[in-house]
Design a protein that fits this description.
The complex is a heterotetramer, with one copy of chain A (754 residues), one copy of chain B (259 residues) and two copies of chain C (87 residues). Chain A is α+β, with helices and mostly antiparallel strands. Chain A has 27 helices and 28 strands. Classes of the chains: A alpha+beta (754), B alpha/beta (259), C alpha+beta (87). Bound molecules: adenosine-5'-diphosphate (ADP) and magnesium ion (MG). The site of magnesium ion (MG) has 4 residues of chain A, from loops. Chains C, D: It comes from Hydrogenibacillus schlegelii (Bacillus schlegelii).
Amino acid sequence: MSASLPLWAVLGLRQEEYLKICEDLGNEPSETVLRMYAVMWSEHCAYKHSKPVLRRLPTKGPHVLQGPGENAGVVDLGDGLALVFKIESHNHPSAIEPFQGAATAVGGILRDVIAMGARPVALLDSLRFGWPDEARQRYLLSGVVAGIGHYGNSMGVPTVGGEVYFDPAYSGNCLVNSMGLGLARREEIQRAIAQGPGNPILVVGARTGRDGIGGAAFASQELSGASEADRPAVQVGDPFMGKLLMEALHELYKAGGVVGVQDCGAGGLTSACVEMANRGGVGMEIDVLQVPRREEGMLPWEVMLSESQERMVVCLERGREAEAVRIFRKWGLEAAVIGVVTDDGVFRVKEGARVVAEVPVRSLADGAPEYTPDAREPAYLRPLRAFDFARLPEPEDYGDVLRKLIASPNIASRQWVYSQYDHHVRLGTVVGPGGDAALLRLPGTKKGVAVKIDGNGRYCYLNPRRGAAIAVAEAARNVVCVGAKPQAVTNNLNFGNPEKPEVYWQFVEAVEGMAEACRALGTPVTGGNVSFYNEFEGRPIYPTPTIGMVGVSPDVERHVQPGFKRPGDVIVLLGQPEGAHLGGSEYCWVIHGVVAGDAPELDLDLERRLQECVFAAIHQGIVTAAHDVAEGGLAVALAEMCIQALPEARGCRVTVPLGPGRADGQLFGETQSRVLVTVGREDVERLRNLALEHDVPIRLLGEVTADGRFRLAVLQPSPKEGAALGRSLIDLPVEALRREWQEGLERWLVPGGA
Amino acid sequence: MTGEHREGVTGLPNPRGEVSGMAKFGVLVFPGTNCEIDVLRVLRDLLHQDAELVWYEERDLERYDAVILPGGFSYGDYLRAGAMARWTPVIEAVYAAAEKGRLILGICNGFQILTEAGLLPGALQRNRHLRYVCGWTHVRVERTDTPFTSAYRKGQVLRIPISHGEGNFYADPDALAEIEKRGQVLLRYATPDGQLTETANPNGSLHHIAGIMNKAGNVMGLMPHPERACEAVLGSEDGCGIFASMIHYLTKGRVFHVG
Amino acid sequence: MRYKAEVRVTLRRDVLDPQGSAVEGALRAMGFDGVERVRVGKWIELWLEAPSPADAQSQAEEMARRLLANPVLETYQLTLKEAGDDR
Amino acid sequence: MRYKAEVRVTLRRDVLDPQGSAVEGALRAMGFDGVERVRVGKWIELWLEAPSPADAQSQAEEMARRLLANPVLETYQLTLKEAGDDR
Ligand SMILES: Nc1ncnc2c1ncn2[C@@H]1O[C@H](COP(=O)(O)OP(=O)(O)O)[C@@H](O)[C@H]1O
Ligand SMILES: [Mg+2]
């Protein structure tokens, strides 16, 4: 740290920002004030580079009760119930200390849900690491997974789904995104607002220590080898305290008198208080001496900026303080009145009688300048998109390719991961991890909530606009595959440094693509999170928007899963009948070591029709299994359905008519808008009619067998007019595939193999 | 979950259908307990019993026919799972209830608390592979002449989920021999067809022990979560028999034999 | 007076120590071939006020016996010292 | 020669110790009113073969630094002694 730099520069503010602060204040800020600004105006808190772009997202819909802007989004589920959901990232902390970084991510997202007045009912996680051949990546994965389990399990919230991908692009900067869902009755929804001059402000939960000071600023910088030295004390999550806090808050909500609540996340007390005051259009006065502390000798700005976990700020109606304190004490927690709502629009921090900071709420909360940096298409794109796939040899042994693909750490079973998460607690999990989307039942109704988290960074690297749209489409498709109707989206935008024109271009493109897809599918965005500066030593990660999609099932009994159920059932491909798209595929990466081409094409209109058709078919009760075609393409999707089949239905015989393009592209390419379903012979006609009605292409591929073999043949047009030649390409015992799939990930992780 | 499938509920044709009487259950809540609502739902909504939550500071459990210590993370599972809950006021009352022959059932964390309290022998160590593990397991019923297992057939294999980081049952060789000799083992992890193989043991428990009772036969602890296996829509109804057995015993005043 | 008790909790000899074995395996994999055996236990420091060293000692003993170690699995060793202001 | 290294791993001062706090609360609730503060760390014993005490020391140091303690959160103290046949 150079002595010659002014404090504002050391704290990461730009000169123009400093000047604007002076202007807003009418004088030069004190150190305390400046430090609060540095945090509140950091990218992480102020969304300086993203706000203008995020406005392009559709956020309204008939079911949306709360769009972006509160702690979490809310959609109406009918029957007086509301679903609260939100996603958060904890990428940098997890790269430094995977266990605690991931644990605190879960704690944070749960407090967002709790702050909305809801009971958390489910968690999902979206993870990205470098290739698992590096010991460091395995260490990160193990730590992150254990950390997520540590917090979620202890809180009694099931982790019902998620995703894990490996790619060298994430070697220096892993991604840890965590999604939380909660349920509340509509009238129980809380807001993060402070109102009513004279009303008391309380901090509840844990004591305040020096941990995590500057965390928001830390998240707003690139990682480098040198990050170690200047990072804040690592925050340690305390799920036990988190659980007590949750119970105490729910008791408090029930008791009444709560005006508003907000979780203390990035920016600590400052951020929570200022945002609450800003939403209410009021001022606030805080006395740092009233804040219960864990450490001695803390300075006022340390108290105001600490990111100690398991704390919330509550604004109560006057006179309700004693009751609140009693409730928190019952749960063994602190609840301290630290300030009061005022009517002057000023955020005033005092240390006893001494005023240490006075700032206009609006300036601190909302006054950061917005930036629209230059955007430039990255130079890497042209050569990559021009890649000549003819250079890649076609496989000699398709069975061997399938074995390798199914064992890829990006496709293999994730059981090693999700077995470390309690996914049953609360008795709501009808479909847990392992299938397409998770399905939770809604107590007291026949209905259910489906949820999926999705995002393919490789597609976005090749085409951020289309890649983001695919993420939305795929998440929705997965939700449909368990019998639910997609409703709304939360998202986490993980990108590099937005001040780089190439990264900013990726960002803008991705948001546009996401917006298009959300519009086309009728799934508004109710919130999300932006994580920039995901770089290591100057190299950005793949642009990685993750989409959290929620849907509603009218009848949870009518759900299906990917595994085959009955020998003799007919296997049907709905959606895009032909396609040999190789770009960005797992096949190209695993077999040829190539990441190139363009992301697969996406016809959003066909996608919507397909989803409506699958939904209708499931609710007519004719579908016995359903699975979307994703990474690994048609052959892998079929293999997954075999592997997950009931013992008596473990096998299939399919014939794929070859269309234009390479056979490997047709079997392993990741052509979009495809769903595989099975139906009984007697129902094929009904399915055909449905497909016709929805204008969705339909192709019968074969049937489920009981012989334990995976048989795939292709039909090639023969030189003779009108005839076709059948050729068997794959004939393997399902058990062999199952073993590859089951052990594919574990082989990397468990010493000495699975 | 994939590849594991229910055998269909055996034993009582309909374990719930057999439940006629009503007993009074106290379900204990320690700071950090998180399965109390699940247990309550099964007892009240599915089995129509009189059940209520009991805060850990309660010192009197006289009014309950049976006491259940549900799963979760009492005191965060810090130090050792169950270690701190064991020293809370309600445990004195649990001793008294056990003494009087009331039924006591500890599930998962509840089992850990009961061993810490010395109401059940042995201890639950960290899982052999050191990872938390959640998933479906199969357990074989070793005895049916007890108040907790009478709704099952001997040798019946139940499909019930587990979810724990410290479920690795340990007792020193003498204690273990004693437990076996007295027939205190009620459930063992097994394959779906009842074999005791290495891979069927999810946590390294000695002798595949998943559930045991005390010498007197009125205190049981088990690591699997029977309350999570009481509805077909959640994947299994096999766990219901534990509660059904208890209710039968409490309302008919005797152990009930099926077969 | 303030005292500091240090309690070392170790697994009994005959109890398997999966964590110790894992560390041992990891150390060998890192190239520390000389490692023969590793055992992992707990190290608990506690500060307390007590009227006398004897009282502090007996309190600390009791805490260790009742809560800090589980006799089925573990044994403990305790040392007591006067504590200044170190925490 | 055989050596035994004892490694005490403790949380850094400024790092929150939820486990310690919970134990502290439990001890007070058990009636040990004099308890002021509890911190929970690890106690690792390892036995190793090494050509000399200096070598054993430097190996043990390296193990502690690289694996046994997580420098982001913890610090360690190491003592080395010659080991007989005790395990
Ligand atoms: N990190 C994770 N946490 C929990 N569940 C996961 C995680 N990663 C994957 N899963 C679950 O494993 C299954 C397969 O994952 P994935 O291959 O990513 O599915 P998809 O191709 O449908 O995106 C899904 O049910 C998913 O929810
Ligand atoms: Mg899928």
